[in-house]
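Newbie here. two chains, one complex. Structure please?
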Amino acid sequence: MAEKALPRLTRLLGIMAYVQDQGESPFEELAEHFGVSVSQIRKDVNALWSAGLPGHAGGDLIDFDAYLYEQDVASIVDSQGVTQIRLSTREAVALVGALSSMLASGAAPDVAMSANDKIRALLGADDPVTVVPTADVDRAIAAALQQAVIRKRVVEVDYVDAADRRTSRTIEPHRLVAIDAVAYVECYCRRAQDYRTLRIDRMVGANVTKEPVVCPPADASGFSLVPQFQATVLAARGARWVLEDLPGVRLYEVGDDVRATFDVVDVDWVADRLLAIAPYLRLVEPEPVREALAQHADAVLAAVAG
Amino acid sequence: MVADAAERLLNLIIALTHAPRRMTRDEIRDTVEGYAPRPRGADEADVKKSDAAFERMFERDKDDLRRMGVPLRTVTDPLDGADIGYKIIAADAAMPPLDLTPAEVAVLSLAAEYWQGATLGDDARLALTKVASHTPHQVTEPMPWAARATASRDATSMLVDAIHERQVIRFDYTSSSSGYGHRTVEPWRLVVRGGTEYLVGRDVDKDETRTYRVSRVHGTVKITGEAGAFERPAEIPSSIFSDSMGGHAVIALRPESGHALRARATPLDDVTARDLAVESASIGVTASELANVHAPGEWELFSIRYEHLDMLRDEVLSLRGGAKVISPEALADSVVDFARRALEVARG
C-alpha cells in the first residue's frame, strides 16, 4: 500500500526546511534523519523538484542543484518559500501528554522537563491540557534508579509486591518505563533469577552499588505474560469502564448489561479488579475466579470484625 | 497529472501561499497540479460526476491540511458572500523556532511509542518529523527510558479535538456517585493529575461545571453540533482541583502491611491519636473508636489524604484484610458493602 499522504507531505516539507537550515545535505544523511531509505529520499527530492506554482512555468518551481543531485546531495536553488508547517494542536498535545505522563511518574530524564516546556510554549493559550503534579513516588528513590540506569550499576532495593510482601532484592536495572504515569524499572532480578518489571512507588529504599550491570536487557517486554485461562463476567453497564481495561477483553452488550470475556494471568489480580466493581457484578465464571473473589471479600470482612 | 495525494497537497500549499489575495474552488481545480480541471464540452452527467469527485477530493484535502495544522483561511468576496476563496498566510503557517537540543529531541521520540495504537500516536509521529526538520542530524544512543499508555483511548484525541474546535460532545459515563448514564458536555480542558486524565466542562443538561475521569468514559465520544458552539472560560474554576477535593481518612493497617499506603500516609502515635480524638470534629472519629482499634501490635493507625473516595476504597479492598477504615464512615461502610456484594455473587 502506498504511504499515507500526511506522513509523506510532512517529510517533504521537512526535507525543504532541513536543507535550507543545514545547506548541502547528502541523501544518506536525510535518509537517516527522517528514518526512510535513500531511494525514498531520491523520490521525495524528485517530487519536490516538480512541485510549484499553478501553470508550472519556468522559475515557478522548486529548484535543486542538478550537479549535486547527481552526487546524491540535496541543495536548494529556489525554495518557492516552502518550509515546515507549525505543529497542530493535536500534534503538540500528543507530545506534551506523553512527556507529562513520564514527568508525573518520576521516571523521566531531566531534559523531559525542558522539552515539555518548549512544546507547551508553542500551544500558548490554546493548550487544552493542564498537568497537576503529585508526589506519590519517592523522588530520592527515582533519582537513585535514574543514576543506576545511566551508569549501568546494580541496585539493592527494598520492595513491596502486589500481595504486600516486603522483600530485599538485588536488581540489574536496564530501563525506566512510565506506564499510565506510573514508574517502573525493567530489570534482571537476582532473587527471582529472571527478568522483572518492578513498580518504583512500591520501593521503600534503593541503594546504588559500585557493581556494574552484566545481564543484557530482556528481548521481550516484561508485560508479555502467559494467560492461564479465560474468564467471563456479566455485569451492569456501569462497570464497563473497568472491564474495558482487562487484558485481551472482548465486550458484548446484553440489554442493560455487559458481558466481558478476558485472559486471566493472575487470578488474584483479577479478583481485585472484580472486588472494585462488586455491586455491578451479576455472574462470574469459572469457579477459581469466584473462589479468589470470595476469599478476598472474606478477608476484608474479617478485618473489619477483628 | 500528479496522482500522489502528498504531492497534490504540496502544490495546493504552494498555490494558496502565493495567491495574492485568495483562490476560489474553480481556480484551484483548474490550475493546481493534481486536480482534474473542469471538463469542457462534456455532457451534463459527466460534468456532475466530475464536480462531485472534485468536491470529495477537495474536502478531504482541506481536512488533511487542517489536521496537520495549516491555518487555512476562508476569504469571502466582499460583493458576493457566497463566493468563497482560500488563502494561507506563510507567516502563520511556518514552524516557529523551537531551539531543541539533540537530547530533547531524543526524549520527544519516546512520545510516539507512548500512545501505541491510539490516534494520538500518528499525531506524535507527524510532530516528530516536524521537530526533526529544524534540528541538525546527530546519531543518538537509545535512551534507557520508555513511556506507554496501556489504556490509551481514542477518547483522548476526540476530546482534544472537541476542546480545540469548541464542539459539544456526548458520551456514556459511570460516575462514582450516581452510576451509569449519558452525558452531554461542553468540553473545556483536559487535566492530568497523578496519572489520571480528567475532562473539565459544563454538563449541558444539569447546567453545572463538572469533572469527569476519562478512564470512566465508555467506548467512543460522539461529537455533536457545530464548531465554536461555546466559549471556554480562560481559567478553570480553581475549586475543581483545590485541596478541598477529597479529604482525610484514618486507616488502620496490620504491621508489615499496606506499604504503598504507608509511604503516602502520616503515622498516628498515641499522643497524636489522642489529639486527633480531641479535635474529632475535624476527622469524624470519636475517642472510643480510636481506643477500640488502637491495640498496640495488632493495628497501626495512619492518617491519609485522598482525592477520590472510590480510589481509596479500591486500595483498602485490594489489601485483603491488611487494612480497615476507621473514618470517614461513608468509606468504611462502602468497603463492607462491596465485600458483601462480592460474596453474594461468588457464593450465591
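Moderator note: Chain A touches chain B through 124 residues (CB under 8 Å). Chain A has ten helices and 14 strands. Thread marked as resolved.
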